[in-house]
Amino acid sequence: MQLEVFPNPEPARDYEIRFECPEFACLCPKTGQPDFATIRIVYVPDEVCVELKSFKVYLWSFRDQGVFHEAITNRILDDLVAALSPRRIEIEAEFNVRGGIYTTVNAEWSK
């Protein structure tokens, strides 16, 4: 899935863009059962911004993939860095309880 971008309307200014995606889903790679999470993203764009519909479809592409929480958080970060080359980006993936344990994974990148 290709992330679409558009030109940053204010490239000379540092400002934050925040997304909260409360319906993220993937599969547990051990059991095959669904995992659900809220993905929060904060980034400072440089030359481009991510187009939201393409980002939504990108997130949907993980619904049938078995992946560990740590891996998916870092993959989303890597894919956004590759598409946007932002000045700074942080991702928080807050997974619903599984086996009595809540998992939150944070990853960040900056130029």
In short:
With 111 residues, the protein is of the alpha+beta class. It has 2 helices and 6 strands, in the order ββββααββ.
Main pleated-sheet profile: 4 strands, antiparallel
Shape: elongated
User: What's the N-to-C terminus distance?
Assistant: 25 Å
What is the helix tally?
2
Counted beta strands: 6
Topology of helices and strands:
Elements: E1 5-7, E2 17-27, E3 34-44, E4 48-50, H1 52-60, H2 69-84, E5 88-98, E6 101-110
Antiparallel strand pairs: 1-4, 2-3, 3-5, 5-6
Key phrases:
single chain; 111 residues; alpha+beta; four-stranded antiparallel β-sheet; two-stranded antiparallel sheet
Question: How is this structure best described in words?
Answer:
The protein has two helices and six strands, in the order ββββααββ. With about 110 residues, the chain is an alpha+beta fold. The strands form two sheets. Strands 2-3-5-6 form a four-stranded antiparallel β-sheet, covered by helices on one side. Strand 2 and strand 3 form a beta hairpin. It is elongated, with a radius of gyration of 14 Å. The model has no long low-confidence stretch (mean pLDDT about 95).
